[in-house]
Amino acid sequence: MNGRRMVSVLGSTGSIGISTLDVIERHPDRFGVYALAANSSVELMYAQCEAWQPRFAVMAEAAAAEQLHARLGAGSPTEVLQGEAGLARVVTAPEVDAVMAAIVGAAGLPSTLAAARAGKTVLLANKESLVMGGQLLMAAVRDAGAQLLPIDSEHNAIFQCLPVSDTARPSLAGVSKVLLTASGGPFRQWTQAQMEAATPDQACAHPNWSMGRKISVDSASLMNKGLELIEACWLFDLPQEAIEVVVHPQSIIHSMVQYLDGSVLAQMGNPDMRTPIAYGLGWPQRLQAGVAPLDLIATARLDFEPPDEGRFPCLRLAREAVAAGGTAMAVCNAANEVAVAAFLEGRIAFTGIPRVIEFTLERVPVLEPCALSVVESADTQARQVAAQCIATLATKDRKTGLA
Length: 403
Ligand code: NAD
Ligand code: MG
Known about the structure:
Order of helices and strands: EHEHEHEHEHEHEHEHHHHEEEHHHHHH
CATH class of the domain at 5-151: Alpha Beta
Bound molecules: nicotinamide-adenine-dinucleotide, magnesium ion
Largest sheet: 7 strands, parallel
Strand order of the largest sheet: 4-3-2-1-5-6-7
Protein backbone atom coordinates (compact mmCIF):
# COMPACT_ATOMS: atom_id res chain seq x y z
CA MET A 1 0.00 0.00 0.00
CA ASN A 2 1.13 3.53 -0.69
CA GLY A 3 -0.04 4.97 2.62
CA ARG A 4 -3.58 5.66 1.46
CA ARG A 5 -6.31 4.44 3.77
CA MET A 6 -8.39 1.78 2.02
CA VAL A 7 -12.14 1.98 2.54
CA SER A 8 -14.94 -0.53 1.92
CA VAL A 9 -18.15 1.39 1.26
CA LEU A 10 -21.22 -0.72 2.11
CA GLY A 11 -24.43 0.74 0.69
CA SER A 12 -22.44 2.64 -1.94
CA THR A 13 -25.45 3.28 -4.20
CA GLY A 14 -27.48 4.94 -1.42
CA SER A 15 -27.60 8.48 -0.14
CA ILE A 16 -24.79 8.06 2.43
CA GLY A 17 -22.74 5.85 0.07
CA ILE A 18 -22.83 8.46 -2.70
CA SER A 19 -21.89 11.25 -0.26
CA THR A 20 -19.02 9.10 1.05
CA LEU A 21 -17.62 8.63 -2.46
CA ASP A 22 -18.00 12.37 -3.03
CA VAL A 23 -15.78 13.11 0.00
CA ILE A 24 -13.26 10.39 -0.91
CA GLU A 25 -13.03 11.80 -4.44
CA ARG A 26 -11.80 15.10 -2.98
CA HIS A 27 -8.84 13.31 -1.34
CA PRO A 28 -7.34 10.83 -3.81
CA ASP A 29 -3.99 11.08 -2.03
CA ARG A 30 -5.47 9.96 1.30
CA PHE A 31 -8.10 7.35 0.48
CA GLY A 32 -8.68 4.49 -1.91
CA VAL A 33 -11.81 2.38 -2.42
CA TYR A 34 -11.19 -1.29 -1.71
CA ALA A 35 -14.76 -2.51 -2.14
CA LEU A 36 -18.26 -1.30 -2.92
CA ALA A 37 -21.46 -3.09 -1.84
CA ALA A 38 -25.14 -2.64 -2.64
CA ASN A 39 -28.42 -4.47 -2.81
CA SER A 40 -29.65 -4.69 -6.41
CA SER A 41 -28.99 -1.50 -8.42
CA VAL A 42 -26.70 -2.99 -11.06
CA GLU A 43 -26.44 0.03 -13.36
CA LEU A 44 -25.33 2.46 -10.66
CA MET A 45 -22.94 -0.12 -9.21
CA TYR A 46 -21.51 -0.69 -12.68
CA ALA A 47 -20.90 3.06 -13.08
CA GLN A 48 -19.27 3.20 -9.61
CA CYS A 49 -17.01 0.23 -10.48
CA GLU A 50 -15.94 1.94 -13.71
CA ALA A 51 -15.15 5.14 -11.81
CA TRP A 52 -13.42 3.61 -8.79
CA GLN A 53 -12.00 0.31 -10.03
CA PRO A 54 -12.39 -1.36 -6.63
CA ARG A 55 -10.88 -4.76 -5.92
CA PHE A 56 -14.37 -6.14 -5.08
CA ALA A 57 -18.02 -5.29 -5.69
CA VAL A 58 -20.65 -7.08 -3.60
CA MET A 59 -24.31 -7.41 -4.57
CA ALA A 60 -26.82 -8.76 -2.04
CA GLU A 61 -28.91 -10.48 -4.69
CA ALA A 62 -27.49 -13.38 -6.72
CA ALA A 63 -29.17 -12.29 -9.97
CA ALA A 64 -27.76 -8.77 -9.55
CA ALA A 65 -24.27 -10.18 -8.89
CA GLU A 66 -24.47 -12.22 -12.11
CA GLN A 67 -25.66 -9.24 -14.13
CA LEU A 68 -22.90 -7.04 -12.74
CA HIS A 69 -20.29 -9.70 -13.50
CA ALA A 70 -21.52 -9.94 -17.10
CA ARG A 71 -21.66 -6.15 -17.44
CA LEU A 72 -18.08 -5.66 -16.16
CA GLY A 73 -16.67 -8.30 -18.51
CA ALA A 74 -13.55 -10.43 -18.30
CA GLY A 75 -10.98 -7.61 -18.33
CA SER A 76 -12.32 -5.83 -15.23
CA PRO A 77 -10.04 -5.46 -12.19
CA THR A 78 -13.16 -5.81 -10.01
CA GLU A 79 -14.20 -9.23 -8.76
CA VAL A 80 -17.93 -9.58 -8.06
CA LEU A 81 -18.99 -11.25 -4.81
CA GLN A 82 -22.45 -12.01 -3.50
CA GLY A 83 -24.42 -11.84 -0.26
CA GLU A 84 -23.38 -12.01 3.37
CA ALA A 85 -20.21 -14.02 2.64
CA GLY A 86 -19.11 -11.38 0.16
CA LEU A 87 -19.73 -8.60 2.67
CA ALA A 88 -17.81 -10.48 5.38
CA ARG A 89 -14.86 -10.84 3.03
CA VAL A 90 -14.64 -7.15 2.12
CA VAL A 91 -14.94 -5.89 5.70
CA THR A 92 -12.37 -8.27 7.19
CA ALA A 93 -9.69 -8.24 4.45
CA PRO A 94 -6.27 -7.22 5.83
CA GLU A 95 -5.97 -4.51 3.14
CA VAL A 96 -9.01 -2.65 4.57
CA ASP A 97 -8.53 0.16 7.10
CA ALA A 98 -12.04 1.59 7.37
CA VAL A 99 -15.55 0.37 6.66
CA MET A 100 -18.41 2.76 5.88
CA ALA A 101 -21.44 0.87 7.24
CA ALA A 102 -24.23 2.51 5.22
CA ILE A 103 -26.53 -0.38 4.35
CA VAL A 104 -30.08 0.48 5.35
CA GLY A 105 -31.90 -1.49 8.03
CA ALA A 106 -31.32 -4.73 9.90
CA ALA A 107 -29.49 -6.11 6.84
CA GLY A 108 -26.51 -4.05 7.98
CA LEU A 109 -25.94 -5.82 11.29
CA PRO A 110 -23.83 -8.88 10.33
CA SER A 111 -21.33 -6.90 8.23
CA THR A 112 -21.03 -4.10 10.82
CA LEU A 113 -20.40 -6.71 13.51
CA ALA A 114 -17.84 -8.50 11.34
CA ALA A 115 -15.97 -5.23 10.69
CA ALA A 116 -15.88 -4.50 14.44
CA ARG A 117 -14.71 -8.02 15.26
CA ALA A 118 -11.92 -7.61 12.70
CA GLY A 119 -10.76 -4.49 14.61
CA LYS A 120 -11.41 -2.07 11.74
CA THR A 121 -12.29 1.60 11.93
CA VAL A 122 -16.08 1.42 11.60
CA LEU A 123 -17.82 4.53 10.27
CA LEU A 124 -21.32 3.82 11.49
CA ALA A 125 -24.22 5.27 9.50
CA ASN A 126 -26.38 2.14 9.81
CA LYS A 127 -28.08 3.01 13.11
CA GLU A 128 -30.35 -0.04 12.93
CA SER A 129 -27.40 -2.38 13.56
CA LEU A 130 -26.67 -0.61 16.86
CA VAL A 131 -30.35 -0.45 17.81
CA MET A 132 -30.74 -4.21 17.21
CA GLY A 133 -27.41 -5.52 18.38
CA GLY A 134 -26.01 -2.72 20.56
CA GLN A 135 -24.76 -5.04 23.27
CA LEU A 136 -23.00 -7.36 20.80
CA LEU A 137 -21.59 -4.56 18.69
CA MET A 138 -20.20 -2.55 21.60
CA ALA A 139 -18.64 -5.71 23.07
CA ALA A 140 -17.05 -6.53 19.71
CA VAL A 141 -15.63 -3.00 19.45
CA ARG A 142 -14.11 -3.27 22.94
CA ASP A 143 -12.76 -6.79 22.54
CA ALA A 144 -11.20 -6.26 19.11
CA GLY A 145 -9.98 -2.71 19.81
CA ALA A 146 -11.96 -1.39 16.84
CA GLN A 147 -12.57 2.33 16.44
CA LEU A 148 -16.27 3.16 16.17
CA LEU A 149 -16.98 6.60 14.73
CA PRO A 150 -20.61 7.74 14.57
CA ILE A 151 -21.71 9.15 11.21
CA ASP A 152 -25.34 9.82 12.12
CA SER A 153 -25.20 13.63 12.29
CA GLU A 154 -26.52 13.92 15.88
CA HIS A 155 -24.13 11.30 17.25
CA ASN A 156 -21.27 12.75 15.30
CA ALA A 157 -22.13 16.12 16.87
CA ILE A 158 -22.23 14.60 20.38
CA PHE A 159 -18.92 12.82 19.70
CA GLN A 160 -17.42 16.17 18.70
CA CYS A 161 -18.76 17.90 21.85
CA LEU A 162 -17.68 15.25 24.38
CA PRO A 163 -14.33 15.36 26.16
CA VAL A 164 -11.76 12.92 24.78
CA SER A 165 -10.34 10.41 27.26
CA ASP A 166 -6.76 9.10 27.33
CA THR A 167 -7.87 6.12 25.25
CA ALA A 168 -9.21 8.39 22.48
CA ARG A 169 -12.71 7.12 23.26
CA PRO A 170 -15.47 9.57 24.18
CA SER A 171 -15.64 10.20 27.91
CA LEU A 172 -18.52 11.41 30.07
CA ALA A 173 -16.39 13.45 32.47
CA GLY A 174 -18.42 16.43 33.72
CA VAL A 175 -21.38 15.69 31.42
CA SER A 176 -24.85 16.17 32.88
CA LYS A 177 -27.05 15.63 29.83
CA VAL A 178 -27.13 15.11 26.08
CA LEU A 179 -29.55 17.21 24.03
CA LEU A 180 -30.51 15.27 20.91
CA THR A 181 -31.92 17.64 18.31
CA ALA A 182 -34.72 16.68 15.90
CA SER A 183 -35.96 18.67 12.92
CA GLY A 184 -39.51 17.55 13.64
CA GLY A 185 -39.79 16.25 10.06
CA PRO A 186 -42.30 17.23 7.36
CA PHE A 187 -45.35 16.68 9.64
CA ARG A 188 -44.16 18.79 12.56
CA GLN A 189 -47.17 21.09 12.28
CA TRP A 190 -49.69 18.64 10.79
CA THR A 191 -52.83 17.62 12.64
CA GLN A 192 -53.58 13.99 13.50
CA ALA A 193 -56.25 13.94 10.77
CA GLN A 194 -53.81 15.22 8.15
CA MET A 195 -51.27 12.58 9.18
CA GLU A 196 -53.91 9.81 8.80
CA ALA A 197 -54.07 10.68 5.10
CA ALA A 198 -50.34 11.36 4.50
CA THR A 199 -48.86 9.81 1.35
CA PRO A 200 -45.38 8.22 1.05
CA ASP A 201 -44.14 11.13 -1.07
CA GLN A 202 -45.29 13.65 1.54
CA ALA A 203 -43.55 11.64 4.28
CA CYS A 204 -40.34 11.52 2.23
CA ALA A 205 -40.28 15.28 1.54
CA HIS A 206 -37.99 16.19 4.42
CA PRO A 207 -37.66 19.96 4.94
CA ASN A 208 -33.87 19.99 5.52
CA TRP A 209 -32.20 16.69 4.63
CA SER A 210 -32.15 14.63 1.45
CA MET A 211 -32.05 10.95 2.49
CA GLY A 212 -33.14 7.42 1.53
CA ARG A 213 -36.89 6.68 1.75
CA LYS A 214 -36.81 4.48 4.86
CA ILE A 215 -35.01 7.01 7.07
CA SER A 216 -37.16 9.80 5.59
CA VAL A 217 -40.33 8.04 6.80
CA ASP A 218 -38.62 7.45 10.17
CA SER A 219 -37.95 11.20 10.37
CA ALA A 220 -41.59 11.97 9.63
CA SER A 221 -42.83 9.59 12.39
CA LEU A 222 -40.03 10.63 14.82
CA MET A 223 -39.03 6.95 15.02
CA ASN A 224 -35.72 8.17 13.61
CA LYS A 225 -35.26 10.12 16.86
CA GLY A 226 -36.35 7.06 18.82
CA LEU A 227 -33.76 4.92 17.04
CA GLU A 228 -31.19 7.66 17.61
CA LEU A 229 -31.99 7.77 21.31
CA ILE A 230 -31.24 4.04 21.52
CA GLU A 231 -28.14 4.56 19.37
CA ALA A 232 -26.90 7.28 21.76
CA CYS A 233 -27.45 5.07 24.83
CA TRP A 234 -25.18 2.41 23.33
CA LEU A 235 -22.56 4.64 21.74
CA PHE A 236 -21.97 6.84 24.76
CA ASP A 237 -22.97 4.44 27.53
CA LEU A 238 -25.76 6.75 28.72
CA PRO A 239 -29.01 5.96 30.54
CA GLN A 240 -32.00 7.17 28.52
CA GLU A 241 -32.89 9.67 31.28
CA ALA A 242 -29.69 11.54 30.40
CA ILE A 243 -30.91 12.15 26.84
CA GLU A 244 -33.43 14.87 26.10
CA VAL A 245 -34.98 15.27 22.67
CA VAL A 246 -35.30 18.89 21.53
CA VAL A 247 -37.10 19.82 18.32
CA HIS A 248 -35.02 22.34 16.36
CA PRO A 249 -36.67 22.90 12.97
CA GLN A 250 -33.70 24.56 11.20
CA SER A 251 -31.34 21.54 11.61
CA ILE A 252 -28.33 23.84 12.09
CA ILE A 253 -27.41 22.57 15.55
CA HIS A 254 -26.89 18.82 15.15
CA SER A 255 -26.96 18.06 18.92
CA MET A 256 -25.54 19.38 22.18
CA VAL A 257 -23.79 18.27 25.35
CA GLN A 258 -24.62 19.96 28.66
CA TYR A 259 -21.99 20.02 31.42
CA LEU A 260 -22.24 20.19 35.21
CA ASP A 261 -20.94 23.76 35.26
CA GLY A 262 -23.82 25.00 33.07
CA SER A 263 -21.89 25.02 29.78
CA VAL A 264 -23.65 23.65 26.72
CA LEU A 265 -21.50 22.73 23.71
CA ALA A 266 -23.23 22.53 20.34
CA GLN A 267 -21.97 21.39 16.96
CA MET A 268 -23.40 23.45 14.10
CA GLY A 269 -23.25 23.36 10.34
CA ASN A 270 -25.38 23.18 7.23
CA PRO A 271 -27.45 19.99 7.07
CA ASP A 272 -25.13 18.03 4.75
CA MET A 273 -24.01 14.49 5.63
CA ARG A 274 -20.63 15.10 4.02
CA THR A 275 -19.61 16.94 7.23
CA PRO A 276 -19.94 13.91 9.58
CA ILE A 277 -18.65 11.60 6.81
CA ALA A 278 -15.51 13.72 6.35
CA TYR A 279 -15.08 13.89 10.13
CA GLY A 280 -15.21 10.10 10.34
CA LEU A 281 -12.89 9.55 7.40
CA GLY A 282 -10.31 12.08 8.54
CA TRP A 283 -10.56 11.62 12.33
CA PRO A 284 -8.75 12.98 14.28
CA GLN A 285 -7.92 15.43 11.50
CA ARG A 286 -10.36 17.70 9.66
CA LEU A 287 -10.88 17.35 5.93
CA GLN A 288 -12.39 19.52 3.21
CA ALA A 289 -15.88 18.05 2.68
CA GLY A 290 -17.33 20.21 -0.10
CA VAL A 291 -19.91 21.61 2.34
CA ALA A 292 -20.90 25.27 2.00
CA PRO A 293 -19.81 27.34 5.03
CA LEU A 294 -22.56 28.11 7.54
CA ASP A 295 -24.04 31.57 7.11
CA LEU A 296 -25.54 32.44 10.50
CA ILE A 297 -26.78 35.85 9.36
CA ALA A 298 -28.77 34.22 6.56
CA THR A 299 -30.01 31.54 8.98
CA ALA A 300 -31.16 34.35 11.30
CA ARG A 301 -33.13 32.17 13.74
CA LEU A 302 -32.60 29.02 15.75
CA ASP A 303 -35.87 27.76 17.27
CA PHE A 304 -36.46 25.05 19.86
CA GLU A 305 -39.60 23.27 21.07
CA PRO A 306 -40.47 20.05 22.93
CA PRO A 307 -41.50 16.98 20.90
CA ASP A 308 -45.23 16.19 20.82
CA GLU A 309 -45.44 12.56 21.92
CA GLY A 310 -49.21 12.60 21.45
CA ARG A 311 -49.01 13.04 17.69
CA PHE A 312 -45.68 11.19 17.46
CA PRO A 313 -45.97 8.07 19.67
CA CYS A 314 -42.87 6.42 18.14
CA LEU A 315 -40.60 8.34 20.49
CA ARG A 316 -42.44 6.94 23.52
CA LEU A 317 -42.31 3.43 22.02
CA ALA A 318 -38.54 3.66 21.57
CA ARG A 319 -38.14 4.78 25.20
CA GLU A 320 -40.30 1.83 26.29
CA ALA A 321 -38.11 -0.55 24.29
CA VAL A 322 -34.99 0.82 26.03
CA ALA A 323 -36.68 0.37 29.41
CA ALA A 324 -37.67 -3.23 28.54
CA GLY A 325 -34.04 -3.88 27.51
CA GLY A 326 -32.65 -7.05 25.88
CA THR A 327 -34.10 -7.90 22.49
CA ALA A 328 -36.97 -5.36 22.85
CA MET A 329 -34.95 -2.82 20.86
CA ALA A 330 -34.44 -5.34 18.03
CA VAL A 331 -38.18 -6.05 18.10
CA CYS A 332 -38.98 -2.33 17.95
CA ASN A 333 -36.61 -1.90 15.01
CA ALA A 334 -37.95 -4.89 13.07
CA ALA A 335 -41.60 -3.91 13.58
CA ASN A 336 -40.76 -0.40 12.40
CA GLU A 337 -38.99 -1.68 9.25
CA VAL A 338 -41.96 -3.87 8.32
CA ALA A 339 -44.45 -1.07 9.07
CA VAL A 340 -42.47 1.52 7.06
CA ALA A 341 -42.25 -0.86 4.08
CA ALA A 342 -46.03 -1.46 4.29
CA PHE A 343 -46.66 2.30 4.42
CA LEU A 344 -44.36 2.95 1.45
CA GLU A 345 -46.24 0.24 -0.49
CA GLY A 346 -49.58 1.88 0.35
CA ARG A 347 -50.79 -1.03 2.51
CA ILE A 348 -51.26 0.93 5.77
CA ALA A 349 -51.80 4.54 6.76
CA PHE A 350 -48.89 6.60 8.09
CA THR A 351 -50.50 6.54 11.54
CA GLY A 352 -50.58 2.72 11.36
CA ILE A 353 -46.79 2.66 11.86
CA PRO A 354 -46.79 3.23 15.67
CA ARG A 355 -49.78 0.89 16.01
CA VAL A 356 -47.84 -1.95 14.38
CA ILE A 357 -44.81 -1.29 16.59
CA GLU A 358 -46.85 -1.17 19.81
CA PHE A 359 -48.76 -4.36 18.89
CA THR A 360 -45.48 -6.17 18.18
CA LEU A 361 -43.65 -4.93 21.29
CA GLU A 362 -46.55 -6.20 23.42
CA ARG A 363 -46.39 -9.71 21.94
CA VAL A 364 -42.78 -10.70 21.33
CA PRO A 365 -41.01 -11.92 24.50
CA VAL A 366 -37.84 -10.12 25.58
CA LEU A 367 -34.67 -12.21 25.72
CA GLU A 368 -31.06 -11.57 26.69
CA PRO A 369 -29.21 -10.77 23.43
CA CYS A 370 -26.21 -12.98 24.17
CA ALA A 371 -25.55 -14.01 20.55
CA LEU A 372 -26.32 -12.79 17.04
CA SER A 373 -28.65 -15.78 16.58
CA VAL A 374 -30.82 -14.60 19.53
CA VAL A 375 -31.09 -11.10 18.05
CA GLU A 376 -31.86 -12.51 14.61
CA SER A 377 -34.59 -14.78 15.90
CA ALA A 378 -36.20 -11.86 17.81
CA ASP A 379 -36.01 -9.90 14.54
CA THR A 380 -37.69 -12.74 12.60
CA GLN A 381 -40.41 -13.23 15.19
CA ALA A 382 -41.12 -9.48 15.32
CA ARG A 383 -41.43 -9.35 11.52
CA GLN A 384 -44.01 -12.16 11.60
CA VAL A 385 -46.08 -10.49 14.34
CA ALA A 386 -45.85 -7.10 12.61
CA ALA A 387 -47.00 -8.67 9.32
CA GLN A 388 -50.07 -10.15 11.08
CA CYS A 389 -50.90 -6.75 12.56
CA ILE A 390 -50.54 -5.11 9.13
CA ALA A 391 -52.87 -7.67 7.55
CA THR A 392 -55.52 -6.79 10.17
CA LEU A 393 -55.02 -3.03 9.76
CA ALA A 394 -55.16 -3.29 5.96
CA THR A 395 -58.46 -5.24 6.12
CA LYS A 396 -59.95 -2.68 8.53
CA ASP A 397 -58.80 0.21 6.29
CA ARG A 398 -60.40 -1.44 3.25
CA LYS A 399 -63.67 -1.76 5.17
CA THR A 400 -63.59 1.91 6.22
CA GLY A 401 -62.55 2.99 2.73
CA LEU A 402 -59.07 4.18 3.72
CA ALA A 403 -57.13 1.83 1.41
P1 NAD B 1 -30.54 4.48 1.02
O1 NAD B 1 -31.81 3.74 0.92
O2 NAD B 1 -30.33 5.70 0.22
O3 NAD B 1 -29.32 3.47 0.67
C1 NAD B 1 -29.23 2.18 1.21
C2 NAD B 1 -28.04 1.44 0.61
O4 NAD B 1 -27.99 0.12 1.20
C3 NAD B 1 -28.16 1.21 -0.90
O5 NAD B 1 -26.87 1.30 -1.47
C4 NAD B 1 -28.67 -0.22 -1.01
O6 NAD B 1 -28.30 -0.84 -2.23
C5 NAD B 1 -27.92 -0.85 0.17
N1 NAD B 1 -28.49 -2.09 0.66
C6 NAD B 1 -29.77 -2.32 1.07
N2 NAD B 1 -29.91 -3.59 1.48
C7 NAD B 1 -28.70 -4.19 1.31
C8 NAD B 1 -28.19 -5.49 1.54
N3 NAD B 1 -28.98 -6.47 2.02
N4 NAD B 1 -26.89 -5.74 1.27
C9 NAD B 1 -26.08 -4.78 0.77
N5 NAD B 1 -26.50 -3.52 0.53
C10 NAD B 1 -27.80 -3.23 0.80
O7 NAD B 1 -30.31 4.78 2.57
P2 NAD B 1 -29.45 5.96 3.24
O8 NAD B 1 -30.30 7.14 3.43
O9 NAD B 1 -28.12 6.11 2.55
O10 NAD B 1 -29.21 5.34 4.69
C11 NAD B 1 -28.26 4.32 4.94
C12 NAD B 1 -28.11 4.13 6.44
O11 NAD B 1 -27.58 5.32 6.99
C13 NAD B 1 -29.44 3.89 7.16
O12 NAD B 1 -29.22 3.00 8.21
C14 NAD B 1 -29.81 5.26 7.69
O13 NAD B 1 -30.58 5.19 8.88
C15 NAD B 1 -28.43 5.83 8.00
N6 NAD B 1 -28.37 7.29 7.99
C16 NAD B 1 -28.66 7.96 6.83
C17 NAD B 1 -28.63 9.36 6.82
C18 NAD B 1 -28.90 10.14 5.55
O14 NAD B 1 -28.80 11.36 5.56
N7 NAD B 1 -29.25 9.52 4.43
C19 NAD B 1 -28.33 10.06 7.99
C20 NAD B 1 -28.04 9.34 9.15
C21 NAD B 1 -28.06 7.95 9.13
MG1 MG C 1 -29.61 11.54 12.36
